[in-house]
Design goal:
heterodimer, A: 148 residues, alpha/beta, Rossmann fold, B: alpha+beta, Alpha-Beta Plaits, 2 domains, elongated
Chain lengths: 148, 193
């Protein structure tokens, strides 16, 4: 019974961890805007956490620069299973205008499976909330598959 | 005693919440983007003349073109990769036939790469060569020059000359359609570029 209660409460409150891998700060600002009273993603239980060890959903923004690549891999290794990866904007998926640069080591798909992506440069907060909503659903499915 | 915020406190008790209801509230529609918002690209293949200008001006290289020869001509497919796009709308500005448009649809959320592709296909009939001008009939109105998406035609009315830049011409045939005197026609078949 306890396990059921824990599973239910975990599905209701996925915690976010945000990694900036060389983003221009546009997507980061929009993600923060999601958590403000105007869009209020916290009413769905999303909460920004400071540690990857507490995270359920990892939000990645930026084209993954050489400097941030090792840090990204190390951080993703610390996130407990099951977790969901959400990519913000065009950069993590393709590198956007930075692709082909000597210091860009994207796309994100090379390092981890991306569950949900949002397109846009930058995406609107409404679109980000939609993606997080979708990611929460995928996370619940993943957790169910794990506990079985 | 001064209560500077009392007015606002009382006002806020009775005012509506500033939070956008969507998507938690059922029945509430998603908020619409501003009219100038640059969202998902729409591509009208029927209007496209395959000049390739959008590919040339796209800074992240998000647009790809596949030309497949079929019986009637060439099957041309344009693919806009929205995971690569910067939404700068340069392709929209440069498109001579307004085949590319930006919509206000911002719901670009997906799990697969295919969710982010905008494609359009059309069959372009085999060109019969470069357009040629019958200068006995031509009145040098300049309509062909105005409508040429590539700016390949120069009409000089005072000197009565009609010149075509064969490097720029994509043999789309728009000038022939627009000519009011029917003096333009496709000339000797020539290989494109």
């Amino acid at each position: 019974m306890f396990k059921k209660a824990i599973a239910k409460s975990m599905a209701k409150s996925p915690w976010l961890y945000h990694i900036n891998t060389g983003s221009c700060n546009g997507c980061d600002i929009e993600l923060v805007a999601c958590l403000t009273p105007r869009y209020d993603a916290e009413r769905f239980g999303f909460k920004l956490t400071g540690s990857p060890r507490h995270a359920d959903i990892v939000v990645v923004s930026g084209p993954i620069t050489s400097q941030s690549k090792d840090r990204l891999v190390r951080t993703l290794a610390q996130v407990p299973q099951p977790f969901c990866v959400v990519s913000l904007g065009s950069c993590p998926r393709s590198g956007n205008v930075f692709k082909g640069s000597y210091s860009v080591e994207g796309p994100l798909e090379k390092y981890v499976h991306v569950d949900v992506s949002v397109a846009g440069c930058t995406p609107k907060p409404e679109a980000i909330i939609e993606a997080l909503y979708k990611a929460a659903g995928i996370l619940a499915e993943k957790r169910e598959a794990m506990t079985k | 005693m001064k209560l500077p915020f009392l007015k606002y406190a009382v006002k806020n008790v009775f005012s509506k919440p500033s939070t956008v209801g969507w998507p938690a509230k059922k029945g509430e529609a998603a908020p619409e983007a501003k009219p100038e918002y640059r969202g998902r690209i729409s591509y009208d293949a029927a209007k496209c003349v395959n000049c390739g200008m959008c590919i040339r001006v796209c800074s992240p290289g998000a647009i790809t073109r596949v030309v497949k020869p079929v019986e009637e001509g060439d099957e041309i497919t344009y693919t806009f990769d929205l995971t690569s796009c910067t939404f700068c709308a340069t392709c929209v500005d440069f498109c001579g036939t307004k085949a590319i448009q930006m919509t206000d649809d911002y719901h670009m959320v997906g799990t697969k790469h295919e969710d982010f592709l905008v494609t359009g296909t059309r069959v372009k009939k085999k060109a019969k060569g470069f357009p040629e001008c019958d200068q006995d009939v031509c009145v040098y109105c300049g309509l062909c020059q105005k409508n040429c998406p590539e700016g390949a035609i120069v009409v000089d009315r005072p000197n009565k000359t009609w010149t075509l830049d064969k490097k720029e011409c994509v043999q789309c045939g728009i000038c022939i359609q627009k000519c009011p005197k029917k003096c333009l026609k496709f000339g000797v078949p020539g290989a494109k570029k």
